[in-house]
Amino acid sequence: MDKQKEKQKEVSPSSLSFGEGRGEAVGSWAVAARASWGVTFILIGMDDHPEPWFHPDVIRHIKEGKIFSGGIRHHEIVKPFLPSGYKWINITVPLEQVFEQYEPHGCIVVFASGDPLFFGFANTIKRKLPEAELLIYPAFNSLQLLAHRLTLRYDDMRMVSLTGRPWHEFDRALIRDEAKIGALTDREHTPAAIARRMLDFGYANYTMHVGEHLGNPAAERIRTMTIEEAAKGKFQHPNNLILVQNGSRQRFCGIPDEAFSCLYERPGMITKAPIRLLTLSALELHGKTSFWDVGFCTGSVSIEARLQFPHLHVTSFEIRPEGAALMEANARRFGAPGITAITGDFLRADLSAIPPPDAVFIGGHGGKLKEMISRIKGVIRPEGVIVFNSVSEESRDMFISGAGATDMEIQSVTRVAIDSYNPIEIMKAGLKR
Q: Do 129 and 208 fall within a single domain?
């Protein structure tokens, strides 16, 4: 490989969309109108076979083409098919530079892995150039190929991509107790790394099927193993995997209080299960995307929210440094991966890189409730709410005063008494409308 290629970071054209593309997997079709400079993309799906077969219509497009694009690996495979005098544009990051190279041209033939609409480059084009004309010739995507090799039904499979993406959607599938999960991998999110994460959070109740170099007759390999075996394994790239559930995990709707590890072994510092569930109800988390738990202590509210609403991005704050280890222990115990725990003074925390919240629970305030509300008001989304559980008249008045001072209004108050504990008022505030 020459020095120029060594400097490039190849990006698979099937891994560059942040949204999940959907479309039929038969034939070809055109979408929308031409972009502002009149560009047409002809997207050709392929596998890793070193001697690919293309439909006659695809061969015609290749023969008539002048500008071609794809990954370095795709270029090596399709070179024998390309006409003399062709120009090739490597799809590498940053993508802005790739699209700048596209701009002078009216028609670009792109080679991509599998189905370009399945977590693929077609979705990237649609996002960046929504008016571009797309003509798509899909191939089987790699998860389909693996299911075919296993003769495994896949219409009931939850499919996620970890190719250049965070863990969130994979974690969501685990928490939702999906019976079958298909995952696209990359060099960081390998089958071994995925298996280790599953073990860390107690999800050993799956069998893992791994497909390596699918479509390449000389290198293709299919392996089936336990999660424990996969965590110690070594795998050839590119690969993907399918997880099939072989047992169930215990699930709660209201985790028992005594099951949590507590700060200083003081169970009284935990938000009790009935209050916890009423609090989540007040937060209306089913319609929210980013939840903050300020003063998480044991992490009970954050963990319950993550398990009951796995679509949420959960960010938790705790001033005591011991909170980090406590959150990690409890999150692993109850199978709640993906919670971002931040320790230190919330009033001094850097919030710039955190998704702004549309739901906030204040579980601890250290006498600075008004200041906390003021800071939250500066970042909360317009439809967002703040919920606070008041245990005294003083804290009740402080919350009402803090909300009023930031142009927020009290939307609801629910008074609850549990066993011999003092009554608690679950108070919700939102922006005035």
A: no
Number of H helices, E strands in the chain: 14, 18
Are 241 and 271 members of one domain?
no
CB-CB contact of 357 with 386 (8 Å): no
d(CA 167, CA 226): 21
- Is there a single domain that holds both residue 385 and residue 322? yes
Task: State the DSSP string of 321-373.
Answer: THHHHHHHHHHHHTT-TT-EEEES-GGGS--TTSPPPSEEEE---TT-HHHHH
Question: Tell me, what's the pLDDT at 35?
Answer: 43
Give the neighbor-by-neighbor strand order of the sheet with 206-212.
Answer: 158-161, 180-184, 239-245, 206-212, 221-226
- In DSSP notation, 17-67 reads -SS-----SSS--EES---TT--EEEEEEE-S-SS----HHHHHHHHH-SE
Q: Edge-to-edge strand order for the sheet containing 290-294?
A: 340-343, 313-318, 290-294, 359-362, 385-390, 424-431, 408-416
Beta-strand runs (E) in 140-205: 158-161, 180-184
Q: What is the pLDDT of residues 185-206, one digit of tens each?
A: 999 999 999 999 999 999 999 9
Nearest 5 degrees, angle CA 222-CA 225-CA 230? 100
Q: How far apart are CA 363 and CA 279, in angstroms?
A: 10
Could you tell me which of 22, 31, 272 has the C-alpha nearest to residue 141?
A: 22
CATH no. for residue 156?
Answer: 3.30.950.10
| Cα end-to-end distance, the chain, whole Å | 61
Residue 250 resides in a domain: no
pLDDT of residue 407: 92
Strands 385-390 and 424-431: antiparallel
Beta bridge partners of 70: 90
CA dist 75 and 71 (Å) reads 6
Residue 37 has what pLDDT?
Answer: 59
pLDDT at 3: 41
Read off the CATH number of the domain in which 36 is found.
3.40.1010.10
- Which segments of the chain have a pLDDT < 50? 1-12, 14-36
- What are the residues facing 92 on neighbouring strands? 10
- Which pTM does this prediction carry? 0.87
Q: How far apart are CA 260 and CA 169, in angstroms?
A: 26
Within 8 A by CB and 6+ apart from 108, the residues are 39, 40, 41, 42, 67, 68, 69, 89, 102
- Placement of tokens 């696209």 in the chain: 184
Please give the Cα distance from 142 to 222 (Å, whole number). Answer: 12
